[in-house]
Amino acid sequence: MTASAVSLAEIVESAVASQRGRIGPLLPVLHAIQDTLDYIPSDAVPMIASALNLSRAEVHGVMTFYHDFRSTPSGEHVVHLCRAEACQAAGARELERHARESLGVGFGETTADGLVTLEPVYCLGNCACSPSILIDDEIHARVSPARFDELVELLREEG
Amino acid sequence: MGVKVFVPRDATACALGADAVAEGIRAKAAAHGIDVEVVRNGSRGAFWLEPLVEVDGGGERLGYGPVGVADLDSLFEAGFPGNADHPLALGPVTGVDWLASQQRLTFTRAGWTDPLSLDDYRRLDGFAGLERALGLTPQEIVDEIKESGLRGRGGAAFPTGIKWQTALDAPGDRKFIVCNADEGDSGTFADRLLMEADPYQLIEGMIIAGLAVGAREGFIYLRSEYPHCKQVLTEALARAESAGYLGDDIRGSESAFHIELRIGAGNYICGEETSLLDSLEGKRGLVRFKPPLPAIEGLLGLPTVINNVLTLAAVSTVLAEGPAHYRDFGSGRSRGTLTVQLAGNVKRGGVVEIPFGATLRDLVEGYGGGTASGRPVRAVQVGGPLGGYLPEALWDTPLDYEALAEAGGMLGHGGVVVFDDTVDLRQQARFAMEFCAIESCGKCTPCRVGSVRGTEIIDRLIAGQDRERNLQVLEDLCDTMVEGSLCAMGGLTPFPVRTALKHFPEDFQ
């Protein structure tokens, strides 16, 4: 067994242990693994399945059903751009075009320098001050294309 | 003790820079040698004024807003945190008309205090409902809820008392209370505000629900898109447990109740109650057939009460003040207060709690002050992504469940999204289908496949191909989705599409 496989097994084990005793622990387990690793490697699927007494198909089915779970690593930062109606009313369609063009990526893709993964989101509950984006865990309100560029520039400076 | 300065910790306030404002106030006060205590309170829901900074001025709360970091120098120069003569000064917040003219029942505590302070919650009559409930029998609690006329605030408006009675009467020793905090409708954020500004009210309501139906286990299913809310609830649940409001022996009553916070994973459909239950069980969030009703066979096949955040919060008010107090608000069969959220292209957006019966025009023009862009309002979408697009001719309809339904609208969870005259209703209709295609759980073919076909048909309409035929196919497709889908996702997606076609035909020429 390689070193990384051992540590993956440990991560899965500790994620499962932290959720022991819960009803339907699969979602919390997947969240815990993704919180630690930033994604859920395909090698983790059989381990999760065996630890929770599920089939691999069940784990795969759940992972792929939910938008949040990734099977490949993201960029350094994840930018969720709200595409829902309230944001559309305040300019989100234009912001989306701008984001795609300025970053040179589509949804679900990562910029060439690995800085940003762009994801769609349908409502951040910030609809009185639209358009909204979520950068990692931080929401930003009234994001114009120019403001979007500033925020991305800040991420670039952070490195 | 320094002067108390309040800067909200709410997600929208933070999205507008409240953290930096709070830090800035601390630093500037220190530089000026002024002793201040910065309290991170909840928001009042007047999001257009955020960050709304308040100063405790001896019984009165003096407001300033919206405050940016760049305003701090001039504020301190004008005498802040003393009574500052400044363009951002609003005077006493209780005098701000946008707030003062509301009738706050569920949001009465929002914004006054640190949302996590149990002392503050108790001081503002918190847990009075629970104290009363502990002295009542389960049937007496259910009877009070029935008498209050409380209906589900998630969108379906089902009478809460009847749901609870069903769960109470269901045989079995193990039952559940599930709070649906998967507030996925675009243009809605009242659940979020309640949970971030007054989380104990929800917790109290859930404990009362548990006592009423004999459930000892509760879940809050919160959407993952609300990271601030997750923080507040995690801490609030921990504090409620330490203080003995949750656990095996609630306040010495020998009744047990536990709440687990469960985080969703980004799917709109999990706000549908049966899909939510599957998700809680660790499965794909597929919609279930009804019957059996969740109140009889819900989580793990056991009796389960599923209520929306605002419904459970209102329960604390009903029990604290008595059912008559709650019932006396409202009109027709819509009792209590109406919570709407003004969103989208609106000048003064936020949470508005008013008596049922106000019109859409009162809201959009009165509270909302028209569009943020300054252009004329053209369409208003009421009730989330499955709600209709309403033209000006319908804005005088009173906003209650029945009147709006009669006019061909839907109140839903009370989201009101304002669009100006640059909106293209073809694109909005297309998006309704696209959203359904992205978020359909996949169980019913008319929803899963119909939404994809719907997007394609509208694309052909936009391209000007074979107009009459494509309109006919779209109509047929909408009928199939309405008739052939188990839940509101497929069943109501045609609603925004059809209202766009009906009320804004010029966009489809």
Q: How would you characterize the overall build of this protein?
A:
The complex is a heterodimer of chains A (159) and B (509). Chain A has 159 residues and is of the alpha+beta class. Chain A has two domains: 3-65; 77-158, Glutaredoxin, CATH 3.40.30.10. Chain A has helices spanning 3-18, 26-37, 44-52, 56-65, 85-89, 92-103, 145-158, and strands at residues 77-82, 109-110, 116-121, 133-135, 138-140. In chain A, a hairpin with a 2-residue loop joins β4 (133-135) and β5 (138-140). The mean pLDDT of chain A is 95. Helix content of chain B is 41%, strand content 15%. Chain B is built from 22 helices and 16 strands. Classes of the chains: A alpha+beta (159), B alpha/beta (509). At the A-B interface, α2, α4, α5 and β5 of A face α1, α11, β8, β12 and β16 of B.
Q: Which homologous superfamily in CATH is the superfamily of the largest domain in chain A?
A: Glutaredoxin
Count of spatially separate domains of chain B: 4
The rough form of chain B would be described as: globular
Task: Report the sheet-strand fraction of chain B.
Answer: 5-15%
Gap from first CA to last CA of chain A: 34 Å
Q: Give the overall form of chain A.
A: elongated
Topology record:
The complex is a heterodimer of chains A (159) and B (509).
Chain A: H1 3-18, H2 26-37, H3 44-52, H4 56-65, E1 77-82, H5 85-89, H6 92-103, E2 109-110, E3 116-121, E4 133-135, E5 138-140, H7 145-158
Chain B: E1 3-6, H1 11-15, H2 18-31, E2 36-39, E3 53-56, E4 61-64, H3 72-77, E5 89-92, H4 97-100, H5 118-123, H6 128-134, H7 138-148, H8 160-169, E6 176-181, H9 190-197, H10 199-213, E7 217-222, H11 227-242, E8 258-263, H12 273-280, E9 304-308, H13 309-321, H14 323-327, E10 330-331, E11 334-335, E12 337-344, E13 350-355, H15 360-367, E14 377-382, E15 389-390, H16 401-406, E16 415-420, H17 425-439, H18 445-448, H19 450-462, H20 467-484, H21 488-492, H22 494-503
Parallel strand pairs in B: 1-2, 6-7, 6-9, 7-8, 12-16
Antiparallel strand pairs in B: 1-3, 3-4, 4-5, 10-11, 12-13, 14-15, 14-16
